[in-house]
Design goal:
6 helices; two-stranded antiparallel sheet
């Protein structure tokens, strides 16, 4: 049975409460600091939070590190299709402009970066 904080992460995430999702899973990760899978998922939520604020540089940096944390667990772990998540991260890195701190939200929307595909939980 998955840990309640792990499940709450996905609930918050799909309610677009990205910072809260980040915080919930970080609480679990603090008890398992060597768990890079959780660390990578925390960064996915942080990327979504950054994107909602137009913070391109932060999103790019997190996408790079999240990719490194999650790659070893591909293609699938604890209900997460990591092949799909890694593809989403690559898409972010290709579309997000480099060397720019922040862009207006309307410009970010033109990049058509979808929400990272994470599973829904009951």
């Amino acid at each position: 049975m998955p840990h309640p904080l792990y499940l709450q992460f996905f609930r918050n995430y799909h309610q677009e409460e990205y910072w809260e999702a980040h915080e919930v899973l970080e609480e679990l990760w603090q008890t398992q600091r060597d768990n890079d899978f959780y660390h990578g998922l925390i960064q996915i939520a942080a990327i979504m939070h950054q994107l909602r604020r137009g913070k391109v540089r932060g999103a790019r940096k997190l996408a790079t590190t999240a990719r490194g944390y999650l790659r070893p667990y591909a293609p699938y772990r604890e209900g997460v299709d990591l092949a799909q998540v890694l593809s989403w991260l690559e898409n972010c890195l290709q579309k997000l402009p480099d060397q720019i701190e922040k862009i207006p939200l309307e410009d970010l929307e033109k990049l058509a970066i979808p929400v990272c595909p994470l599973p829904h939980v009951e």
